[in-house]
């Protein structure tokens, strides 16, 4: 049984974003942390204090979600510019663009095998993408308002999603059907995720609540109302014993799920906390908010090395297997009342002033954004120029001091191939494709672009038609009820007027 040892401590803060930090995630393989911001940039921070940070440009609007792939070799980001970008985290900042949504993309997440992506959008849809084929696969369309978040279960058989229609939905990825719906929210459902075993989901709301459900029995296991404002994000500890949450009340809360109580309140941000994330091993967690800072905390409150614990668990026969789809009952909404519990709050955790790392800006002249149309993306160039890895274990200072200007590629440092000293080549020359073949591909892409726009318009019209049809059916039912009520009143009047004649 784990025991509380020490209070969490603030290890470092990362300053480099020029606007609110909206999302963050740790790399599972390297000592890196990625963050997205309202300043439209993606930053990758090396946890080594002496290593430089990298800022990537490409999105045209606020970045709303970011996540490393399970292998750590890719980073995916979502944005209000209606696109999803799959980045190769090298000094070139190359990315592929996925387009299929017709409105802001609110979240993006890898499946646990790294083969699929799931996105949530203001176009009321949840979409699934293939990473290997670099294309849109299918869409889930039963939400009636903006979808805020979507996540795969650990075995990738289920998807959980939530949104402004005040529902949390559970989807079967094989049948693409909604198999359960939780509706008891007083406001928008802001975030949802599975625990590490996949037997439970947690969801947070704009009504300041956080709820944990057992999806095998559809029962509410725990209900927390420890924040004084809406909860924007949360993250499970790899052990499943703890959960951290970030709120618009400017605090980060740490919950002990075994004892069902709040154990820490962390004050480090000046303004709403928009994102929190545990590292894959659970020894660190990060938080970001409207103060444009990313704070990295050392966990300290559990003495177990969870990398070792998780490796042991993976070698055993799983004592608590993921739920079978037929075990999830009932299918409809199920109402529960809130549960109260004891709350313990620690003193404020002091901030430590650490120096900000040097930042290398990877500008638009230094990466190739190959556009995907209707979910089809061109492959990255086969011949990469100066694709120096951002792994902090490699020497980032091997060829010069490095410039903070993204437009001066000759000063960037890193390895360059022979005969390619800082030059930028067109796509045809980089991929060694003939010019005529390249022009044919370009015409195909243009035709696919037209097809994408047509599909998008049809999808939008279909959504509007469905909404209008629901409104018409509702009005029709109200009219029928009103007519029946009037008929009953008329019958009662006729019965009263005919009664004296019958007695006579």
TrEMBL record:
<keyword id="KW-0853">WD repeat</keyword>
<keyword id="KW-0677">Repeat</keyword>
<keyword id="KW-0206">Cytoskeleton</keyword>
<keyword id="KW-0963">Cytoplasm</keyword>
<feature type="repeat" description="WD">
    <location>
        <begin position="56"/>
        <end position="87"/>
    </location>
</feature>
<feature type="repeat" description="WD">
    <location>
        <begin position="224"/>
        <end position="265"/>
    </location>
</feature>
<feature type="repeat" description="WD">
    <location>
        <begin position="182"/>
        <end position="223"/>
    </location>
</feature>
<dbReference type="InterPro" id="IPR015943">
    <property type="entry name" value="WD40/YVTN_repeat-like_dom_sf"/>
</dbReference>
<dbReference type="InterPro" id="IPR050505">
    <property type="entry name" value="WDR55/POC1"/>
</dbReference>
<dbReference type="GO" id="GO:0060271">
    <property type="term" value="P:cilium assembly"/>
</dbReference>
<dbReference type="InterPro" id="IPR019775">
    <property type="entry name" value="WD40_repeat_CS"/>
</dbReference>
<feature type="region of interest" description="Disordered">
    <location>
        <begin position="388"/>
        <end position="419"/>
    </location>
</feature>
<dbReference type="InterPro" id="IPR036322">
    <property type="entry name" value="WD40_repeat_dom_sf"/>
</dbReference>
<dbReference type="InterPro" id="IPR001680">
    <property type="entry name" value="WD40_rpt"/>
</dbReference>
<comment type="similarity">
    <text>Belongs to the WD repeat POC1 family.</text>
</comment>
<dbReference type="Pfam" id="PF00400">
    <property type="entry name" value="WD40"/>
</dbReference>
<feature type="compositionally biased region" description="Low complexity">
    <location>
        <begin position="398"/>
        <end position="410"/>
    </location>
</feature>
<dbReference type="GO" id="GO:0005814">
    <property type="term" value="C:centriole"/>
</dbReference>
<feature type="repeat" description="WD">
    <location>
        <begin position="140"/>
        <end position="181"/>
    </location>
</feature>
<feature type="repeat" description="WD">
    <location>
        <begin position="98"/>
        <end position="139"/>
    </location>
</feature>
<dbReference type="InterPro" id="IPR020472">
    <property type="entry name" value="WD40_PAC1"/>
</dbReference>
<keyword id="KW-0175">Coiled coil</keyword>
<protein>
    <recommendedName>
        <fullName>POC1 centriolar protein homolog B</fullName>
    </recommendedName>
</protein>
<feature type="repeat" description="WD">
    <location>
        <begin position="266"/>
        <end position="298"/>
    </location>
</feature>
<feature type="coiled-coil region">
    <location>
        <begin position="441"/>
        <end position="468"/>
    </location>
</feature>
<dbReference type="GO" id="GO:0036064">
    <property type="term" value="C:ciliary basal body"/>
</dbReference>
<feature type="repeat" description="WD">
    <location>
        <begin position="14"/>
        <end position="48"/>
    </location>
</feature>
């Amino acid at each position: 049984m784990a025991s509380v040892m020490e209070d969490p401590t603030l290890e470092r803060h990362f300053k480099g974003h020029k606007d609110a930090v909206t999302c963050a995630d740790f790399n599972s393989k390297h000592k890196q942390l990625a963050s997205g911001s309202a300043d439209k940039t993606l930053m990758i921070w090396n946890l080594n204090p002496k290593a430089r940070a990298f800022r990537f440009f490409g999105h045209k609007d606020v970045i709303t979600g970011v996540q490393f792939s399970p292998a750590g070799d890719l980073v995916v980001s979502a944005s209000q510019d209606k696109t999803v970008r799959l980045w190769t985290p090298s000094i070139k900042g190359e990315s592929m663009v996925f387009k299929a949504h017709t409105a802001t993309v609110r979240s993006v997440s890898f499946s646990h095998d790294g083969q699929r992506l799931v996105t949530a959008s203001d176009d009321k849809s949840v979409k699934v993408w293939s990473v290997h084929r670099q294309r849109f696969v299918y869409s889930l369309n039963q939400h009636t308002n903006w979808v805020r978040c979507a996540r795969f279960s650990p075995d990738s058989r289920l998807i959980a999603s939530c949104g402004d229609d005040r529902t949390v939905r559970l989807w079967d990825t094989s049948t693409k059907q909604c198999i359960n719906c939780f509706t008891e929210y007083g406001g928008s459902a802001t975030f949802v995720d599975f625990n590490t075993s996949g037997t439970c989901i947690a969801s947070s709301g704009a009504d300041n609540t956080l709820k944990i459900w057992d999806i095998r029995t559809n029962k509410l296991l725990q209900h927390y109302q420890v924040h004084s404002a809406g909860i924007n994000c949360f993250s499970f500890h790899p052990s499943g014993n703890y959960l951290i949450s970030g709120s618009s009340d400017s605090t980060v809360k740490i919950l002990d799920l075994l004892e069902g109580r709040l154990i820490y309140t962390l004050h480090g941000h000046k303004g709403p906390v928009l994102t929190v994330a545990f590292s894959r091993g659970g020894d660190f967690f990060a938080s970001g908010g409207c103060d444009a800072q990313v704070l990295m905390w050392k966990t300290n409150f559990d003495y177990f090395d969870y990398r070792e614990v998780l490796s042991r668990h993976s070698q055993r026969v799983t004592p608590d297997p993921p739920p079978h789809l037929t075990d999830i009952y009932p299918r409809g909404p199920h109402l529960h009342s809130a549960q109260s519990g004891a709350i313990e709050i620690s003193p404020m955790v002091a901030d430590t002033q650490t120096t900000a790392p040097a930042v290398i800006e990877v500008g638009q002249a230094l990466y190739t954004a190959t556009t995907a149309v209707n979910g089809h993306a061109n492959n990255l160039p086969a011949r990469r120029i100066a694709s120096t890895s951002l792994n902090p274990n490699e020497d980032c200072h091997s060829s010069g001091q490095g410039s903070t200007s993204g437009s001066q590629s000759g000063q960037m440092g890193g390895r360059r191939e022979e005969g390619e000293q800082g030059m930028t080549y067109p796509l045809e020359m980089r991929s060694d494709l003939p010019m005529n073949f390249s022009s044919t591909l370009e015409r195909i892409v243009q035709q696919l672009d037209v097809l994408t726009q047509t599909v998008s318009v049809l999808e939008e019209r279909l959504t509007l038609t469905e909404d209008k049809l629901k409104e018409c059916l509702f009005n029709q039912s109200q009219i029928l009820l009103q007519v029946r009520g009037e008929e009953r009143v008329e019958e009662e009047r006729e019965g009263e007027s005919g009664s004296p004649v019958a007695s006579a």
